[in-house]
Amino acid sequence: MGDTTQRILCISTYEKGQDFLRQCAEMGVRPTLLTVEKLRSADWPRDVLEDIAFMPDNLTTEQVLNTVSWMARGRRFDRVVALDEFDQETAAAVREHWCIRGMGLTTTAFYRDKLAMRTGAREAGFNVPDFTRVLNYDELRDYMAQVPAPWLLKPRTSASALGIRKIHQPEDLWRALEELGDRQTHFLLERFVPGDIYHVDSIISGGKVVFSVVHKYGKPPMQVMHEGGVFTTRTVDRDSNDWKELTKFNASLAPALGMTRGVTHAEYIRAHADDRLYFLEIAARVGGAFIVDLVEAATGINLWREWARIEVMDLLGVPYELPQARADYAGSVLCLAQTAEPDTSAFTAPEIVFRMKKHHHAGLIVRSPQSERVRELLDDYAQQFASRYLASMPPPEKPTA
User: Fold this and answer.
1) Backbone angles phi, psi at 180, to 5 degrees
2) How far, CA to CA in Å, does 43 sit from each of 40, 118, 370?
3) What InterPro entries does the database record attribute to this sequence (predicted)?
């Protein structure tokens, strides 16, 4: 009789997703982790892993396919999951090569490629800032003649605000494209829209958003990334128009791009000029910068564990049921710190529920049943973090977590 053990192969080139791995094991599905050699000593939950394998950095997709296919000779994998955004194309290629369930490369592009997701959102009827591909120079000239500057030159597959350049005049664009050379087609050009930035974190099951929560950034992430400063985000008042409109917008857009199950982290902007909501980007992953902890503080929902539950329940043929969620408010404050292990013990408000532990970072998460109390704490703490801890450095070329 063949092996009937059910298994999930998880791929991650960053240290994350420990709760996902634990949840799989707790539900009786054996997780195997494929990660990179430099993370051999990372804090992986080895006690719940059936196996952990290490590969060199920067393997090609073909090399990873060879590696995982060799691993599959000895055990059968029923699902393949990328725990990090930068591994999603690899996981999709494995699924297609093995002919197993899950998003393939075409659908994955709508959650990874900023040009693809904008094109898909616009074709589905959603507001998107005016954009164009970087390919044909006549198209670029026509775009710049019709769309007023400034513009943003964005990498199509980078996460967060990494690698974004603000372009103020056509000459700046041509110089930037000359620097990029053959890499320029991996970018897009988009109208810069000043406004308030929101993120909506969701759970999708059966092609529908079954859970979402709306948060609003303090300073836009691009500003914090490129100019420095203190990063803050907080839960939006659930009775506000922002909450209602963004919940509705997200419920339509997230599955419209093709996802049937999983989690998403999406960003939207309410433009100062016309007060309209615009789609910025969406990713098929949990948010970074401790957003998963922020969501759990506000709602009691752990996105890593729910993502694992969805995958396992789909594997078992059992309908997914969302746990009961709280309706509290939470906010986080985070900054790059001058010292390696900053001391936040001077902050003693009873609303503090989480102290972030990350090298050269200071961070707190607060929770309250009152939205205004969270706002007050973040305003105060952001000022104090700036004076006590804040360090600055050039933005990294690639993510560090």
Assistant:
1) -75, -30
2) 9, 36, 35
3) ATP-dep_AA_Ligase (IPR052032), ATP-grasp (IPR011761), ATP_grasp_subdomain_1 (IPR013815)
CB atoms within 10 A of CB 296: 22
* Sheet arrangement for strand 131-133: 131-133, 187-191, 151-155, 165-167
What global pTM score does this model have?
Answer: 0.93
CB 90 within 8 A of CB 82: yes
Residues 9, 116, 246, 289, CA torsion sign: positive
Please enumerate in sequence order all residues whose Cβ is within 8 A of that of 121, keeping only pairs 6 or more positions apart, or say none.
128, 253, 256, 257, 279
- Whole-angstrom Cα distance, residue 27 to residue 108? 27
Give residue for tokens 């759990």. 296
Q: Do domains 7-109 and 195-388 have the same CATH topology?
A: no
* C-beta of residue 165 within 8 angstroms of C-beta of residue 179: no
* DSSP H or E segment with residue 64: helix 61-71
Burial of 306 (0-12, 13-18, 19+ CB in 10 A): buried
Q: Identify the band that residue 226 occupies on the pLDDT scale cut at 50, 70 and 90.
A: low
To which CATH superfamily is domain 195-388 assigned? ATP-grasp fold, B domain (3.30.470.20)
Q: Residue 9 has which token pair? A: 């192969």
d(CA 16, CA 22): 12
- CATH architecture for the domain at 130-191: 2-Layer Sandwich (3.30)
Q: Tell which residue, 163, 160, 220, 154, has the closest CA to residue 191.
A: 154
Q: Kindly tell me if the per-residue pLDDT of 55 is higher than 90.
A: yes
- For the chain, which residues make up each domain, given as ranges? 7-109, 130-191, 195-388
Architecture, CATH, for domain 7-109: 3-Layer(aba) Sandwich (3.40)
Question: pLDDT confidence of 250, banded at 50, 70, 90?
Answer: very high
